[in-house]
Structure formats: C-alpha cells, structure tokens
C-alpha cells in the first residue's frame, strides 16, 4: 500500500498495525533470549543471501532521488552498497552476541517482615520509530528493539520506500524462521505524511516514539505527539579550553571534535577559549581548521587574533551547523563559559579541556547536558564508544533515558517482591 483511499482508511490501517504490534509485544515479552538471537542471526543470513534483490529495490529509490535532484550526500546515505549491507550484517551479529538485557534483577532488599524487594528489567512494549533517508536504520531499529524484547512500528522516509519495504520483508521472514510473530516488526506501508500524525497519537497501542531525523521532523513531533518521545532536537555542542588547558591537547581535541565528521550531532559547533590562552591557542588552531575548509565565525577578541574569522552574531551561538563551520568566543572565566553553555547549549554534549581538577569537577557538576566530558572531544557521543554497543539515537530527555540510547535504554524496570505469606497488619 502506497497511499490510502481516505483518512478513515488510513486511521483503520494504523489502528490495525497498533493492535498487531501489541499482540506481538506480549509474545516477545516471554520469548527467550536464545529465540530472539536466532531471529537476529536469521536476519543477518537473509541480508547476505538477498543482497542483489535488495540492491535492485534500492536502485528504484536511487533513480527516483536522482530524478528529483537529490544531492550527492543524500544519495550516498540512501545507497545500499555491498559495504553498507556487509556493515548491517556485522551489526546484527554483534547485537546477537551482546548480553540479554531482559530479566536481570537488581540486588534484593530484605524487609523487616522477611519479604524480598527487587527490580527486574523488562521491555518497554511497543516502540514507534520515525526516520528519514537512511535505510540502514530499518535494520538497526528492528535489531535493537527485538534484542530488548520490544515490538516495533517503523515509519521510514519516502525517499527510501522501496529499500525499506524490502528490508522489512527480510526482517519479517527472519522472525518467522525463529518462530516469532512476523508482526513484531512492522513497516508503515505508505508515504502519506498523515500516517506519522496517526502513529504519534496512538497512545492506546504505542508506548514510546523515537524520531531519527532533522530538526523540522522533531519540531513537528514535539508539537503534535501524544505518545512520549525519546529524542534530541539539536546537538549544539561546546568545547571550553580553560585557562589551565594543555595547549597541544586543546588543539588536538578541538580539531578532532570539529573535523572528525561535520554532520554528526556530537560535532563541536562552538569553541570557548579562556582569555589567558587565546593568543597562544587560536592562531595555529584556526589555521588548521581553515586548511580543512572550516569557516570561522568569531567574537571581537577572536577576530583580533584570527583575521580570517568573520563576525559572529547571536544566531551563530544558537546554531547547530552540521557543516564545516565553527563559532569561536573568547571568555574571561569558567563561570562565563558555563553561563554561555547554559544560555545557548542544547543539553547534548559539552566538554572542558583543563589540567585543573577543580575546574573539571565544577564543569561536570554545573553543566546540565546529557554528556559532559573532561579532556575529550564531543564526537565521542556515541553508544558504541560508551561501551553500550549499537544505539538507536541520543536523548536529551530528562526522564527515562539520557544520552546514547542503547539496549538498556529500550527497557524499563518493574518491582518484584517475594514473600512467604506475610500479611500487612
């Protein structure tokens, strides 16, 4: 189905998907870790075996993208090359090999009456994932949700429609191979944008929505969703080079944070430099960045030290560039750096470079972001780098999960009590 006949038809279709997901979630909740791992390994085998068929479907999306004038970077994201498919296969095998997050117990507490109180890790239930461009997210999302015992409803971008449908068919066949319900992972089979509106308001069927997309998508979901969201809106990440920073370390960390990959949400977008070290740090660092074709925007003090920098305005401090562009501000104190991050930061990832343990402690305590680093580049903001394995995204939420969302972030806890007939008096 590519386009429903009416809004009533669409609503009925989405409700049916929701009911099927709930039924599948009930089965997944009690499925063994070995069964879920069998499904993941079956996905990996089927992906490898059906590579050519999958690439034929992907070619339809690529042809449509070219005809619409899609730029090279987006076409690259959309392409299911041999390497991209091999990476998905390896990812599935890695997720299958990870420890099962479901059913683990916290240490129990024995109450005065002898009853034991503990918590058990359990799936969330049904997770809706809305994403754009990258068809590999279909496999990543399906695998992570399955490993954590959750049913999944996927809504991919229209530009990857044929690729996503082929991938979801592979996933559902693998689920059947393992004796699990095929509807444990469902792809919304329409490009109608109204389907998103239905999905994000289906509180009776969907437990949480995870968006993977640009600011426009997430702003819309923020405004319209009734189902809780796990998301981040912006990755306006900062590095502060403190008065007590090692200059060589500050240079390398800032350079890596900006140039590792311009388009990731953990890329540094604003560099804050203490007045005392700015003359020694900024000229050489600025030249290295310029040599990498990074455009520099700066405050008045920055421009006095870096002639190539153009004036920064308020919008530069607020902007997640996701591009070879960097805002630089010289500050007079740690307090001023923290105040700047408080005012302009997005709560994603921020770092200090310093050899002063007191400054490092204050920065980590006072900067209210989902990840706060000392002497590390912000581009480490990734679940794999944290030892979480694969991740579904980064969260700047304050409730449930914050930072990279790995398998544990796709679970919740329930209380389990054991007794021997105790009664409440």
Alpha carbon gap, first and last residue: 60 Å
Number of strands: 16
Shape: globular
The whole-number mean of residue pLDDT values reads 95
Radius of gyration: 24 Å
Helix content: 40-55%
CATH architecture grouping of the largest domain: 3-Layer(aba) Sandwich
Main-sheet strand order equals 10-9-11-8-7-12-13
Portion in beta strands: 15-25%
Q: Main sheet, how many strands, which sense, barrel?
A: 7 strands, parallel
This entry's quaternary arrangement is: single chain
CATH C-level of the largest domain: Alpha Beta
Structural class: alpha/beta
Uncertain parts: none
CATH homologous superfamily caption of the largest domain: Aldehyde Dehydrogenase, Chain A, domain 1
Write out key terms for the chains shown.
four-stranded parallel beta sheet; 44% helix; alpha/beta; globular; Aldehyde Dehydrogenase, Chain A, domain 2; 425 residues; 2 domains; seven-stranded parallel beta sheet; 15 helices; Aldehyde Dehydrogenase, Chain A, domain 1
Task: Tell me about this structure.
By secondary structure, the protein is of the alpha/beta class. It has two domains: 7-232 and 404-416, Aldehyde Dehydrogenase, Chain A, domain 1 (3-Layer(aba) Sandwich); 237-385, Aldehyde Dehydrogenase, Chain A, domain 2 (3-Layer(aba) Sandwich), CATH 3.40.309. 44% of the residues lie in helices and 18% in strands. The protein contains 15 helices and 16 strands. It has helices spanning 7-30, 33-49, 51-67, 72-78, 82-97, 136-147, 161-177, 194-199, 215-224, 247-259, 278-291, 300-305, 314-318, 334-344, 357-366, and strands at residues 109-110, 116-123, 126-131, 151-155, 185-187, 208-212, 237-241, 268-274, 295-298, 310-311, 325-331, 349-353, 371-374, 394-395, 403-404, 411-418. The chain starts with 6 loop residues before the first helix and ends in a 7-residue tail after the last strand.
């Amino acid at each position: 189905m590519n386009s429903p006949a009416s809004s009533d038809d669409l609503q009925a279709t989405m409700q049916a998907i929701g009911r099927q997901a709930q039924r599948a979630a009930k089965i997944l909740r009690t499925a063994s870790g070995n069964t879920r791992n069998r499904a993941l390994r079956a996905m990996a085998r089927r992906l490898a075996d059906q590579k050519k068929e999958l690439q034929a479907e992907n070619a339809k999306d690529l042809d449509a993208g070219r005809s619409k004038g899609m730029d090279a970077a987006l076409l690259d994201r959309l392409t299911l090359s041999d390497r991209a498919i091999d990476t998905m296969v390896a990812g599935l095998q890695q997720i299958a090999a990870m420890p099962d997050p479901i059913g683990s117990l916290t240490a129990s507490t024995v109450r005065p009456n002898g009853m034991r109180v503990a918590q058990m890790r359990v799936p969330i239930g049904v997770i809706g994932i809305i994403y754009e461009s990258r068809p590999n997210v279909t496999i990543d999302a399906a695998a992570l949700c399955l490993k954590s015992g959750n049913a999944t409803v996927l809504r991919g971008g229209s530009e990857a429609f044929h690729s996503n449908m082929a991938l979801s068919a592979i996933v559902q066949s693998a689920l059947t191979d393992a004796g699990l319900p095929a509807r444990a992972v469902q792809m919304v089979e329409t490009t109608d944008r109204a389907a998103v509106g239905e999905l994000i308001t289906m509180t009776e069927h969907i437990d949480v929505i995870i968006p993977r997309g640009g600011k426009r998508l997430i702003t819309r979901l923020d405004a319209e969703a009734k189902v809780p969201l796990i998301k981040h809106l912006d990755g306006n990440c900062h590095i502060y080079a403190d008065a007590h920073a090692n200059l060589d370390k500050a240079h390398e960390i800032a350079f890596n944070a900006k140039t590792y990959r311009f388009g990731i949400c953990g890329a540094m977008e604003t560099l804050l430099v203490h007045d005392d070290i700015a003359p020694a740090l900024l000229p050489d660092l600025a030249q290295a960045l310029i040599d990498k074709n990074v455009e520099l925007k700066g405050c008045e003090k920055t421009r006095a030290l870096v002639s190539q920098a153009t004036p920064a305005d308020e919008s530069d401090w607020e902007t997640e560039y996701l591009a070879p562009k960097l805002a630089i501000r010289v500050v007079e104190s740690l307090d001023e750096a923290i105040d700047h991050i408080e005012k302009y930061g997005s709560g994603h990832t921020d770092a200090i470079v310093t050899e002063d343990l007191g400054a490092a402690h204050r920065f980590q305590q006072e900067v209210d972001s989902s990840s706060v680093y000392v002497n590390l580049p912000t581009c480490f903001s990734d679940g794999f780098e944290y030892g979480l394995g694969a991740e579904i995204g980064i969260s700047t939420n304050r409730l449930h999960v914050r930072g990279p969302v790995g398998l544990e972030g796709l679970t919740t806890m329930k209380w389990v009590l054991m007794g021997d007939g105790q009664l409440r008096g």
